[in-house]
Amino acid sequence: MPLVPMRQILDEAAKGGYGVGAFNVNNMEQIQAIMAAAEELQSPVIIQASRGALKYSQLNYLRHLMLAAIELHPDIPLAMHLDHGNSPETCKKAIELGFTSVMMDGSLMPDGKQIATYEYNVKVTREVVEMAHALGVTVEGELGALGGIEDGHGAGLAADNVEHLTDPALAEEFVAETGLDALAVAIGTSHGAFKSLRKDPKTGAVLPPALAMDRIHEIHKRLPHCHMVMHGSSSVPPELVQVVNEYGGEMKATYGIPLDQIQDGIRHGVRKINVDTDSRLAMTGAVRKFLAEHPSKFDPRDYLGPARDAMKEVVKARMQAFGSAGHAKDYRPMTLEEMKRRYKTPATVG
Ligand code: G3H
Ligand code: 13P
Ligand code: ZN
């Protein structure tokens, strides 16, 4: 099976009332972990690469790794997605590389830091939609700005900065003006392991991030057919942080996004859930543990194997929680050519 347009994976998820995890990758072990989880649970899946990942993997390595994934797992619907594309040029490069979906993150300027104007966001997102849809490729856009900053990406906003949360009325306009396939919403989530700056005024202890789930409910009411995307949706399980810290790590106390909140989102139109940090934590904990327990070992396979297994377990847990497990064979995957024809008759994809 060739790579599937992400739009079909999201449309099918909407029909089935479930969400699909979009897992970030940078190397072979992470792709193997995701595909092993998808195979075992028979789940459709979205693999995504950030600009940082493309740079780290020199593009071609990642391209051939994803080709290996479809060759080895022909029955798993798999979309390859560019995460946080910073310009139409970056999106074009990813499409040329064979990605079946791109995110044009016009909520920020191309430097990935400064907040962009609404007009700029509409302009670049529409430009990418025109280019991508002509080839059957899916487009995710973002309205509002996420909190935090990760590897230089993000405006460094406090996660609960209400001013930059997605405005449901504007979302309606944005979707109509751009024609995008999936809308990333800012509801108080942020990238990375430290998602909350809220502190208990008495004890000083960190409090869980406050999420504006009502914005998701409202957008779903206004746009019942719009596929929403939750970024910054790692749950940062304490048990994973604990393994990291038990074996030499120094991570501060933190909270992630509770799975029941994500499930509430899924009941209200969230179809793509971005997870990176949980995979990073699982792998790092496993590597630290292995090396601490086997100080004389030096074969990378000895510690990357357990790291891959640990990530597979996290991915499996998310596939189960998001409800995508068991849905791999529900539909016949479309080609980009077929999707391209559907975009030409918009009534069928609206
Ligand atoms: O956008 C955030 C993702 O976790 C990717 O992070 O830019 O460090 O690859 P990255
Ligand atoms: P996390 O840092 O919560 O895993 O979010 C990842 C993400 O949103 C990638 O786009
Ligand atoms: Zn993101």
Explain what this protein looks like in three dimensions.
It is globular and about 60 Å long. Strand 3, helix 5 and strand 4 (101-104) form a beta-alpha-beta unit. It is α/β, with parallel strands linked by helices and 350 residues long. The strands form two sheets. It has an eight-stranded parallel barrel with strand order 1-2-3-4-5-8-9-10, surrounded by eight helices. It has a two-stranded antiparallel sheet with strand order 6-7. The chain has helices at 6-16, 28-41, 51-56, 60-72, 88-97, 118-133, 168-178, 213-222, 238-246, 259-267, 277-293, 300-322, 336-344, and strands at residues 20-24, 45-49, 78-85, 101-104, 138-143, 148-150, 153-157, 182-185, 227-230, 270-275. The two termini are 25 Å apart. Zinc ion binds next to strand 3.
State the gist of this model.
This protein is α/β, with parallel strands linked by helices. It has helices spanning 6-16, 28-41, 51-56, 60-72, 88-97, 118-133, 168-178, 213-222, 238-246, 259-267, 277-293, 300-322, 336-344; strands at residues 20-24, 45-49, 78-85, 101-104, 138-143, 148-150, 153-157, 182-185, 227-230, 270-275. Helix 2 crosses helix 12 (300-322) and helix 11 (277-293) runs antiparallel to helix 12.
